[in-house]
Specification:
three-stranded antiparallel sheet; Arc Repressor Mutant, subunit A; Beta Polymerase, domain 2; single chain; alpha+beta; 2 domains; 9 helices
Length: 197
C-alpha cells in the first residue's frame, strides 16, 4: 500500500510512518505488537513491517521477538527522539491524543476531527492548521467535554475547539449547517463505539 508524503508534515516519507512514530514516541514506555499497531493505524501489516524495519535500522525504535510476535517500542536513547517527538506532536499526535482524551468522557459515542487539521490529514494542501476542531457525538456534559479539550490542548500544544452534538443530530442534521458542513467536508473519525458508523 503506497502512501504519499503527508500534507500535515511532508518531511515524513509517508503518513503511515508518521502515525507509527507518533504512536510510539508519545508512549515511550509501551511495547506494541506489529499486528496490534497495524489495526490501530489501519494499515496493512506488510506496510507497517517495512516502516518498522526502516525506523529500526535508523535506531529510532527498538524491536524484539517474543514467541511469534514482533514487538516494537520507541528508542528514547536516540538523540533525535526528543525533537522528533515535538515535531510529531505538532502534526500527527492530535489523532491519538484526541481519541484518548475524549473517549474517556462519559457518554461519548464518537469523536470527529474536522476543519483545517482534517483537511491536511486527508492530504489536501494548505497552510498548517492553527487549531483542531473536534465534534463530540453523544450525551456528554459540557464541563467534562471542555476538561478533555484542556487536557488534549496541553498534550498537543495546539488549541482544541470542542463542539457537542447528539447522535440523532449527527445522523440527521436537517437544517443544522455546521453538522451538514462537517458531513460534506474532510473529517476523520478519531473514536467510535461499535454502535456508531
Amino acid at each position: 500500500m503506497r502512501s504519499d508524503a503527508p500534507a500535515l508534515m511532508p518531511i515524513f516519507r509517508s503518513r503511515h510512518q508518521a502515525e507509527l512514530l507518533a504512536r510510539l514516541l508519545n508512549h515511550p514506555d509501551d511495547e506494541y505488537s506489529l499486528s496490534e499497531l497495524a489495526r490501530t493505524i489501519n494499515v496493512p501489516l506488510s506496510t507497517l513491517q517495512r516502516e518498522a524495519d526502516r525506523l529500526a535500522d535508523a535506531g529510532l525504535i527498538r524491536t524484539r521477538t517474543q514467541g511469534r510476535n514482533r514487538l516494537i517500542s520507541a528508542n528514547s536513547n536516540n538523540p533525535a527522539t526528543a525533537p522528533l517527538t515535538q515535531l510529531l506532536n505538532l502534526s500527527f499526535s492530535p489523532l491519538p491524543v484526541i481519541a484518548e482524551e475524549f473517549s474517556a468522557v462519559p457518554g461519548t459515542e464518537a469523536v470527529v476531527i474536522f476543519g483545517s487539521w482534517a483537511a491536511r490529514y486527508a492530504g489536501i494542501p494548505g497552510p498548517p492548521p492553527n487549531d483542531i476542531d473536534v465534534l463530540i457525538i453523544g450525551n456528554t456534559s459540557q464541563l467534562n467535554t471542555f476538561a478533555a479539550a484542556d487536557r488534549a490542548q496541553a498534550r498537543i500544544g495546539t488549541e482544541v475547539n470542542p463542539v457537542q452534538c447528539t447522535p440523532q443530530r449527527w445522523a440527521a442534521p436537517g437544517d443544522d449547517t455546521l453538522i451538514a458542513e462537517i458531513h460534506r467536508s474532510p473529517h476523520t473519525i478519531a473514536y467510535a463505539t461499535p454502535e456508531q458508523p
